[in-house]
């Protein structure tokens, strides 16, 4: 049982055995993310005061208008990870292609791949609603001593060695897994220290909250429409409550604590849905499964999907196990 109020630094050292590779390297990786998270948190908290809200003027490879905070968060995470000298490649929602990073001896000795969604929930930045950051970590598959390659990034989610998110909400929390359960740390802003506040986080097996953008209802597949009607029907412990923040990290976090399901299905206007497999769905799926929840594309586990592109999208059903299974039933029934 983890000791509450352990600092994140202490926790990494005390739990090094759960990490299959050298703990020192994990410390460096998580510490890099902790550092960048604090910098971004500082910017997010004063978003209304300084010229950090609004569009940056460019679009990313997905055709989305980059927000100034998307760009800032992207720079901070990338720079902090590069400085740690163990990351050989980074892919980001805000970068068209992956970034190859050589070790200082020019011998390509670095071993880790990091994929990030630097700022999740961008549409909420300007309106003071909680946003997040998502990260996914792999060990490279190409030989050490050679430059990193696309295949290092296109690994199935099952190969992740760590994943997590930061939620910049009423408090700032870092939640992560290395494959040995999920733990949440809350930032004490006065001390700038993350403390273990939510040890061994787990999704309740079922819940009463469903999170989906119902504004897209008419475009949804029949299975999704039927599942939403099921959630709204007056029967048994239903109707469920509809809650949709519009920030994946925040909707996921609430549902993990209270019990619930988040859906971003495919639709007639989005053939594969909206969310990106590599730096949104895979890391959230790793956390969900480690927290006894479930993550599916409506028909099978997200983490079994073999990626083919850096920015590919997938339909996403994620949350309490029984609720995702019920949604899959409706999808199967109308396949
Ligand atoms: O506005 P929509 O279509 O409901 O989409 C909201 C979803 O899109 C996202 O904002 C996509 O993430 P980004 O903000 O990182 O692009 C999710 O966080 C959120 O759940
Ligand atoms: Mg996102
Ligand atoms: Mg984003």
UniProtKB/TrEMBL annotation:
What's the domain of life for this entry?
A: Bacteria
Q: Which Pfam families match?
A: FBPase, FBPase_C
A cellular component term (GO) from this record?
A: cytosol
The keyword Hydrolase appears for this protein: yes
What residue range is the signal peptide?
A: none
Subcellular localization:
Cytoplasm
Q: Which reaction does it catalyse?
A: beta-D-fructose 1,6-bisphosphate + H2O = beta-D-fructose 6-phosphate + phosphate
Cofactor: how and how many bound: Binds 2 magnesium ions per subunit.
Boundaries of each Fructose-1-6-bisphosphatase class I N-terminal domain copy? 7-199
| Entry's Gene Ontology BP terms | fructose 1,6-bisphosphate metabolic process; fructose 6-phosphate metabolic process; fructose metabolic process; gluconeogenesis; sucrose biosynthetic process
**Pathway linked to the protein:** Carbohydrate biosynthesis; Calvin cycle
Positions with a binding annotation for substrate: 120-123, 213, 244, 262-264, 274
Q: Residues that bind Mg(2+) 2, according to the entry?
A: 117, 120, 280
Q: Which PANTHER family match?
A: FRUCTOSE-1,6-BISPHOSPHATASE-RELATED, SEDOHEPTULOSE-1,7-BISPHOSPHATASE, CHLOROPLASTIC
Q: What is this protein called?
A: Fructose-1,6-bisphosphatase class 1
């Amino acid at each position: 049982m983890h000791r509450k109020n352990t600092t994140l630094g202490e926790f990494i050292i005390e739990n090094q055995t759960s990490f299959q590779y050298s703990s020192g390297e994990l410390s460096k990786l998580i510490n890099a993310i902790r550092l960048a998270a604090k910098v971004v948190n500082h910017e997010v908290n004063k978003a209304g005061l300084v010229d950090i809200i609004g569009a940056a003027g460019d679009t990313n490879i997905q055709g989305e208008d980059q927000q100034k905070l998307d760009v800032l968060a992207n720079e901070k995470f990338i720079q902090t990870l590069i400085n740690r000298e163990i990351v050989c490649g980074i892919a980001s929602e805000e970068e068209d292609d992956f970034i190859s990073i050589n070790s200082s001896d020019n011998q390509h000795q670095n071993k880790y791949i990091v994929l990030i969604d630097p700022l999740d929930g961008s549409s909420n930045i300007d309106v003071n609603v909680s946003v997040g950051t998502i990260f996914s970590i792999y060990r490279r598959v190409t030989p050490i001593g050679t430059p990193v390659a696309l295949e290092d990034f296109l690994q199935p989610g099952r190969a992740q060695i760590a994943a997590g998110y930061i939620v910049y909400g009423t408090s700032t929390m870092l939640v992560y897994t290395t494959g040995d359960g999920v733990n949440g740390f809350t930032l004490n802003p006065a001390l700038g220290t993350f403390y273990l506040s939510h040890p061994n986080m787990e999704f309740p097996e079922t819940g009463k909250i469903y999170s989906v953008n119902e504004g897209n209802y008419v475009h949804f597949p029949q299975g999704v429409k039927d599942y939403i009607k099921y959630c709204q029907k007056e029967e048994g412990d239903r109707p469920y409550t509809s809650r949709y923040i519009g920030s994946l990290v925040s909707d996921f976090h609430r549902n993990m604590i209270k019990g619930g399901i988040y859906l971003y299905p495919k639709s007639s206007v989005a053939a594969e849905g909206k969310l990106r497999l590599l730096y949104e769905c895979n890391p959230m799926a790793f956390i969900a499964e480690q927290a006894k929840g479930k993550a599916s594309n409506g028909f099978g586990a997200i983490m079994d999907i073999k990626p083919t592109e850096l920015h590919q999208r997938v339909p996403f059903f994620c949350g309490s196990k029984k609720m995702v299974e019920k949604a899959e039933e409706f999808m199967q029934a109308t396949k």
